[in-house]
Amino acid sequence: MTAQFEYSTLAHPQDIQQLGYIFEQCYISAFGGEEVYINLIGVENFRIIRKLQQVIGGLATLDMGQWWGGQRVPMTGIAAVGIAPEDRGSGAAIALMQHTLKELYARGIPLSALYPSIQGLYRKVGYEQGGHLCDWEVAANSIQVREQPLPLEPIVTINHEIFHQLYQQQARQTHGYLDRYPAIWERLIQPDEKETFYAYFIGPKEKPQGYILFSQHQAEDGAILRIKDWVILTDTAAQSFWSFLANHRSQIERVRWRSSVIDSLTLLLPEQTAKIRHTIRWMLRVVHVVNALEARGYPSGIQAELHLEIQDNLLTGNNGKFILSVANGRGEVTRGGRGELQLDIRELAPLYTSLFTPYYLQQARKLNGTETAILAATQIFAGASPWMADHF
Fold it and tell me: For the CA atoms of 30, 36, 39, 45, what is the dihedral angle to 10 degrees?
């Protein structure tokens, strides 16, 4: 950080107005009212940077959780990073991120995640690709699933509390899923002025096996059913999910939803008609090495020890050698060891999330390690392809 910048919380009404004005320029009013967005997230969750006492940028911090190996790990999402156009290239964005990460480290937050507009900036402060968000599409008349073993019960009064228990059951089993920030839930269930919103439990409402939230839209080439959120906990729920969507084929041309780059739901379709329309990789930063490694879950049948040597140029408390001992699905970290697997804090992210195996990271010159260390890391960090359903 250079001395010309001052980092602080967002407090004064004039600062809120100025930050909203900057966000308008950065996101072309993508939030649908920047001050509304600031109030939705909570003024106390924004951080700003000044130059010569003038607000020149800011960001939002979203304290939530993320599921790794069946365990909820505290994670702070970073959103709405914006710098005034006249101050871009001055180092303000890096200074803002550096200050924020130091604050998170001091609080003991294990992880931070974000969606990058450009990777270079965030790589400079220790973020790296962590997992996927994919938009899928299938023609409604190609679904061809007819049997529906469960009823779908309309939900008349919609609030996010009624979905929490079902969502958390799926999240716990999904590598990378969020324990959602309240504002993410609010934006999810609030329809915009151009859509009609529908919600159904999959199965009887007394004991549902999932749910589906969706809206319908007219397009020049046919109507689209857009699934905003879904939870499917059983095979009969999955069958009923597809059958329900197939029953829309007389009015709906295409169905769109978010899922993993490897979507097991598509195994129920008779042909490979579902396609990925768009994919993006979100980025992760291991903020506190010890807390992050000890908080996540690991494969229950593994008992192994990994000797790490980590370099972190920003958060120096992460520097040095660590021994990760894994048994019974949990990890314990001690200082010291042989440092047999050497990597930068940035490269720890895709290893931690299982996005890339140690072998592929080594091929890409992202880490160095002995054969023993590579084998241990492969066993310890084995996991399903990481993804999340939410953009923030």
Answer: 10
Q: Which two tokens stand for residue 221?
A: 């080439």
Q: Could you read off the pLDDT of 331-375 as tens digits, one per residue? A: 999 999 999 999 999 999 999 999 999 999 999 999 999 999 999
pLDDT digits (tens, 9 = 90+) for 98-151: 999 999 999 999 999 999 999 999 999 999 999 999 999 999 999 999 999 999
Q: For 385, which DSSP code?
A: P
pTM of the full predicted structure?
Answer: 0.94
Q: At what angle do helices 34-41 and 182-189 cross, to 10 degrees?
A: 130
Q: How many CA atoms lie within 13 A of 85 on its CB side?
A: 6
On whether the CB atoms of residues 284 and 340 are closer than 8 A, the answer is no
The dihedrals phi and psi of 318, each to the nearest 5 degrees, come to -90, -10
Q: Summarize the chain as % helix, strand, coil (round to 5).
A: 30, 35, 35
347 vs 19: CA distance, rounded Å = 33
**158-190 pLDDT tens trace:** 888 889 999 999 999 999 999 999 999 998 888
Domains of the chain as residue ranges with CATH? 5-126 (3.40.630.30), 134-280 (3.40.630.30), 288-380 (3.30.1050.10)
For residue 3, the model assigns a pLDDT of 60
Work out the burial of residue 111: count CB atoms within 10 Å of its CB; fewer than 13 is exposed, 13-18 middle, 19 or more buried.
Answer: buried
| Residue entry with tokens 């909820």 | 72
Amino acid letter, 35? E
Q: Hey, what are 179's tokens?
A: 């324990």
Alpha-carbon distance of 356 to 353, in angstroms, equals: 8
Tell me the average pLDDT across 205-213: 96
- Burial annotation 179-218 (CB, 10 A radius, 16+ → b, else e): bbbebbbebbbeeeeeeeebbbbbbeeeebbbbbbbbeee
pLDDT of residue 194: 72
d(CA 264, CA 239): 12
**Three-class DSSP labels, 83-104:** ECHHHCCCCHHHHHHHHHHHHH
CA atoms of 288 and 286, how far apart (whole Å): 6
Q: CA 228, 234, 235 angle in degrees (round to 5)?
A: 100
